[in-house]
Write the structure tokens for this entry.
Amino acid sequence: MAAQPSTPDPEALLRIALEAAEAAVRIIVDERPAVLGTESKSTPTDLVTEMDRRSEAAIREVIHSHRPGDVIVGEEGGATGGDPGGAPDDTPDGMDTPDEMTVTWWVDPIDGTTNYVYDHPGYAVSIAAGAGGTVLAGVVADPTHGRTYRATSGGGAWCDDEPLRLGAPRPLDHALVATGFSYDAATRRSQAELLSRVIAEVRDVRRVGSAALDLCAVASGRVDAYFEAGLSIWDYAAGALVATEAGAVVSSIDGGDVRPGSVLCAHPELAEDLIRTLARATEAT
Ligand code: IPD
Ligand code: CA
Ligand code: CA
């Protein structure tokens, strides 16, 4: 009888993600060229640099050296690998269907490329691994502050040696809320219109420029909530696990399951209020 595929060990996946993130950070920090070549992607303001590509190549090499059969979905290199039956998956959220035990990795080699280009704080390396419809391990490395966030499904969330804790619960009108914008100008205008309503209902708003760090900021109590439309799975897979494991609610902006294009993350005592407020603001715009 053929052996049944076993569920991958989250801790083993985490160790690989940490090794890959360390290799990527070494490249983007230590080997940053004096003059950084940039190109545009989806719009003239959506940048990619040679360092995004080199970072992703280094991450892929580490993952492949340990787990040559896995699927890797990287922002710059697309979906590769896996056995023909197992992937890449065609589900809308990019997750494996639950009966598949093929491990998929979601890689954002530099989340916050605009910040990286400007040498502005607020970029990260984001790596997550999952199977069977669940993200099992995630790492977000923040080189500017020398912090590495990590989590495994059911194993808690950490920043270096410290377990992560959400901030104290706050009402929405005292909440610091992070968000982000699309690279598409028309989409950004409608996001700004929505925000112009929400900003009046909260303490203040932050736009850091890295979705992965925004999610880790909720997990660490540096902001109370975060929402963004238009993200891809590699932007949020690792950070969402870190935030969930720290005790935050992670959902879509309308309160359903988190999905590409719609991510909300908040202290549990704040989530419903924020979801209602965003729904009202959406109706009004
Ligand atoms: C971007 C960042 C940003 C978010 C954008 C993302 P990138 O990722 O996460 O904070 O607002 O939606 O695309 O392009 O720097 O990898
Ligand atoms: Ca990104
Ligand atoms: Ca990126």
In short: The two ends are 60 Å apart (CA to CA).
